[in-house]
Write a structure and sequence with these properties.
Layout: H1 2-18, E1 21-30, E2 35-39, E3 45-49, E4 52-56, E5 61-64, E6 74-76, E7 83-87, E8 92-96, E9 102-107, E10 117-122, E11 127-132, E12 137-142, E13 147-151, E14 159-164, E15 168-173, E16 176-181, E17 186-191, E18 197-201, E19 204-209, E20 212-216, E21 224-225, E22 235-239, E23 242-246, E24 250-258
Antiparallel strand pairs: 1-24, 2-3, 3-4, 4-5, 6-7, 7-8, 8-9, 10-11, 11-12, 12-13, 14-15, 15-16, 16-17, 18-19, 19-20, 20-21, 22-23, 23-24
Length: 259
């Protein structure tokens, strides 16, 4: 019996080590903004200041604002040709191109049936994932056709965050973390151990709990902590193998290396 327990312990330890990452600090630069959104694959920095979305790089500085729609609640830059700007108070999403020019407006108030949306994230083609609080359900919505492509089963607790790529969608609630594929099938459900924010990168997940970050490999069910030391995390983002942490004064860049 004791050999069986020892085997299980060593197996768990090996799995833990295999899925862990080591963040290596590359730079820390002075940076001040209200809300840091993230960087894209071309090193453009997205942030929000005075309810205006800015995109900064070495060649240009462009911005987008729409005061008629109230406060920007969320910005999704997964597809930089179809950036999503969410105005929750007006139940509206604006789709922008890579120059931050408006290319589509999704007014959920005008749809039938009505959708009361609390969270959004990018999907494939002309779709986005949304959480409908009227039904407590996650939906994949084709905004060009104005049609819902799929609906998942209702969840039983409040939604905290939502993130996705073309193949998967992760829904974080007060009680659980859910992972779905692009067909709406539930692939993973684990207990939420105090996580409040999530970001995906290459089908792997990063979770924030207070001023700590955890890494959940696409091949694992067990989040492991990232050794970051004592660092305030106001916002964070992950692009490919680079982690960015904004602490309200500086933007820290970490290279992520498999341990």
């Amino acid at each position: 019996m004791k050999y069986c327990c020892l085997f299980l312990f060593l197996f768990s330890l090996a799995s833990y080590s295999q899925d862990s990452l080591v963040p290596i600090l590359v730079s820390s630069k002075e940076f001040k903004t209200e809300t840091f959104v993230g960087l894209d694959s071309f090193d453009s920095v997205y942030h929000i200041e005075n309810n205006t979305l800015y995109k900064l790089n070495e060649l240009s500085n462009v911005n987008y604002s729409n005061l008629q729609l109230g406060k920007i609640i969320d910005v999704n830059i997964f597809n930089t040709l179809k950036i999503l700007v969410f105005y929750k108070n007006f139940n509206t999403v604006i789709v922008l191109d890579n120059r931050l020019a408006e290319i589509f407006k999704i007014d959920f108030n005008s749809l039938s049936p009505f959708k009361n949306v609390s969270h959004i994230s990018a999907g494939f083609d002309n779709t986005l994932w949304l959480f409908n609080t009227e039904k407590q359900q996650l939906e994949l919505f084709d905004y060009k056709k104005g049609a819902t492509k799929l609906i998942t089963l209702p969840v039983q607790s409040s939604v905290l965050d939502l993130t996705s790529n073309y193949n998967y969608c992760w829904l974080l609630t007060e009680n659980h973390l859910y992972k779905y594929n692009y067909m709406g099938s539930l692939l993973l459900k684990i207990k939420n151990d105090g996580y409040r924010k999530i970001k995906q990168s290459n089908a792997n997940l990063f979770l924030q709990k207070n001023d700590s970050l955890f890494y959940l490999s696409n091949k694992s069910q067990f989040p492991v902590p990232l050794p970051l030391g004592e660092l305030l995390i106001k916002q964070f983002s992950v692009t490919n193998e680079t982690l960015y942490i904004y602490d309200a004064n500086k933007l820290h860049e970490f290279q992520l290396t498999i341990n």
